[in-house]
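Deliverable D2.4 — example input (structure tokens):
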């Protein structure tokens, strides 16, 4: 088995564009949460989301790409270009380069605009109402295709769509492509732009977004905190360059971290959420990922979306898996208070934060953690923590429909080879 390492990170997030700004704002305890600006959401139970701001697409895309790419593809393409520059990759072997991107929802803005223009709600054909551009901007495959064009990749190009763990699963599967010798370089990560009337309306109707005070803002997201209620939508893209370790070493690449193991499993159910089954399945997945790595887990980057039930379930699962003593000694934090719940991009942001934690040996704080929950028996990081001996990170993910994923990252001692 070959070793798989991360050599490039590109980020388009609600708390910053570029991984440097993203990391700086994570450590500073910033949040991207605010009122929705992409459309009038005042009729929704809560007019809140974590939107990407300060994204100047002219810095990354040509006028033609700006015209034909949807919001998801724009974010993914820009993040991939950043990752490529960050990795110092001017060119790749097309036949040895893959693209594997997580995308669960994609972009709905083109379809929603067409619905507004339509006289019959798209129930009947109307000449000139929609064209291929509208369709291509909406399908989940488009971001991977856009990245493949950038990379000139002629290897395996595909999209992973598995709810909120799409990004984590894409990264895990991409690492296996490297480990099995099927590719030397893989562009991977997650992207989603679910902040739309369709998605927000569905989640609000299902009671999966916060209600209460319509004027509340930043305090609405507080993972593991006793005040938490429900998650809030986010958006963005996190794209990575994964390489065969020897390939990276031969070209003198900087290495952020090694992807040491990947495990995923399904609870095999139709319901969106079943706590009893979730805890058992999630524990098995985490145990499998951890058992593949001999070193002790130094930090856990949790899924915790600021949900009353799900945050406690994850905490209970971790205690069940590792024991009370270990969980009191192991630092845990969630970045969802900063970036919201951006579907596929969530796992990508978590992996980025975890790789940067290993590289810089710092642990980002759990945003807005003020009132500890006595039922959450974890060592939650409330402020930025220095971690000079941090050597491994566990990344947790959970998706609607009972999907669980875990990835273990390890520090590579000589990052500049």
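Example output (designed residues):
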């Amino acid at each position: 088995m070959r070793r798989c390492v991360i050599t490039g990170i590109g980020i388009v997030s609600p708390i910053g564009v570029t991984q440097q700004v993203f990391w700086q704002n994570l450590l500073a305890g910033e949040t991207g949460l605010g009122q929705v600006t992409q459309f009038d959401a005042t009729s929704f139970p809560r007019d809140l989301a974590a939107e990407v701001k300060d994204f100047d697409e002219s810095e990354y895309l040509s006028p033609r790409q700006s015209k034909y790419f949807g919001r998801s593809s724009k974010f993914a393409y820009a993040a991939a270009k950043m990752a490529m520059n960050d990795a110092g990759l001017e060119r790749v072997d097309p036949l040895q380069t893959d693209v594997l991107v997580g995308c669960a929802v994609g972009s709905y803005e083109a379809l929603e605009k067409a619905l507004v223009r339509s006289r019959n709600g798209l129930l009947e054909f109307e000449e000139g109402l929609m064209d291929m551009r509208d369709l291509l901007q909406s399908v989940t495959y488009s971001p991977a295709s856009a990245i493949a064009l950038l990379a000139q990749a002629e290897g395996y190009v595909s999209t992973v769509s598995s709810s909120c763990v799409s990004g984590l699963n894409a990264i895990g599967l991409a690492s296996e492509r490297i480990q099995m010798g099927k590719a030397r370089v893989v562009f991977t990560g997650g992207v989603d732009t679910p902040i739309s009337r369709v998605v927000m309306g569905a989640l609000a109707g299902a009671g999966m977004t916060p209600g209460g005070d319509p004027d509340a803002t930043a305090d609405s997201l507080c993972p593991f905190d006793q005040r938490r209620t429900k998650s809030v939508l986010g958006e963005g893209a996190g794209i990575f360059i994964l390489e065969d370790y020897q390939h990276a070493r031969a070209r003198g690449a900087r290495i952020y971290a090694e992807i040491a193991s990947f495990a995923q499993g399904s609870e095999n159910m139709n319901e969106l959420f079943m706590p009893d089954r979730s805890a058992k399945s999630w524990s098995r997945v985490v145990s499998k990922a951890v058992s593949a790595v001999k070193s002790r887990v130094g930090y856990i980057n949790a899924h915790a979306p600021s949900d009353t039930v799900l945050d406690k379930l994850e905490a209970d699962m971790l205690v069940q898996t590792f024991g009370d003593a270990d969980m009191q000694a192991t630092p845990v934090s969630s970045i969802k208070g900063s970036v919201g719940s951006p579907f596929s991009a969530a796992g990508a942001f978590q992996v980025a934060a975890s790789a940067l934690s290993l590289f810089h040996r710092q642990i980002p704080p759990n945003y807005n953690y003020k009132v500890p929950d006595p039922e959450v028996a974890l060592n939650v990081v409330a402020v930025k923590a220095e971690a000079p001996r941090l050597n491994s990170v566990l990344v947790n993910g959970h998706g609607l429909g009972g999907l669980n994923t875990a990835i273990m990252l390890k520090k590579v001692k000589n990052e500049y080879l």
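The chain is about 35% helix and 20% strand.
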